[in-house]
Fold WalW protein.
Amino acid sequence: MTDGDVCPPKLAIVIHTEEEFDWGGGFNVDATSVSHGEELFALVQSLSLMGAKTTLAMDYPFVSSAQGQNCIANIKISKEISKNVEFGAHLHPWVNPPFEQTVGFVPEHLSYPGNLGYEQERAKLAELTGKISEQTGTRPVTYLAGRYGIGDNTHQVLNELGYKIDVSISPFADYRHQHGPDFRNFNNDIKLENKILSWPHSSAVVSPFSFVRNYFNSSPTSYSSENLFIKVLKKVFRAKLHRLSPEGFSLTDMKNVVKCQNALGQTYFILSFHSPSVKAGLTPYVKNDRERGEFIEKILSFVNWFEKSLDGEFITINEHPLVRKL
Ligand SMILES: [Zn+2]
């Protein structure tokens, strides 16, 4: 695979900035602890020193917690860091008021904001928007649905609440088996629809063979097809779906996503991960201090490679040039 250099790429780093919870343990309305604020600030600071920019898509428990508020205050107090940070919104409906229940577990289908009724989705996002505005002094314009869960009413709600960009699309993914959205028909194309810029989280089908990469990029639905020919094609040509993320993917995987997609003409990339992964023992991806060291190193190495090897540049989500047209 050669370095694709069609056009210098741009990188936005989106952190799903949220509470800590048991990833396999359901949607408990009481699981709202945030104990990784200092580690998160340290990483944002390191990235900023490298010239990299970060969009913190923050949810209600994070913005309401002491550590979350300290993290926000530490960013705001530094001119150098705050110019490299955007505060966006991330909606986890089960821990975001107004609440339908104050104890117990929310059923899985209601963990996706897009499955709520219009009134509920709007009311919850309005509460979150108010809380973020109060803590940061700016109104968020970038939205990330919890569990990538956008629905039929989401664009209307976003328009009404002043949002301009949605980053909830997860290309190729199909979450229907857990009552979630179906993104099988989406690749990484950025689209302007209903006055909202949809910028997908970067995912790509990588393979050592360019015709295979081209095929799945132009026909994303095929990737999840049960067709025997497609299954054989994937196996023989080693086609694999990678998200541009340090969670569950190696540095080589991450570089391959960008190389493959840049060669296809993609210029704008989103690197994403969950904020609790910055501290040991809070997510399945970072179980101990050794893994934490590797995780941070992977992010910083990737950022360094992106800038030095690809002549890449860093932007926040709201700095995408099409946002100016909205
Ligand atoms: Zn989340």
Notes: Residues 10-202+268-325 form a domain with the TIM Barrel fold (CATH 3.20.20.370). The chain has one domain: 10-202+268-325. Residues 16, 18, 90, 92, 146 surround zinc ion (CB under 6 Å). Residues 37 and 294 are 19 Å apart (CA to CA).
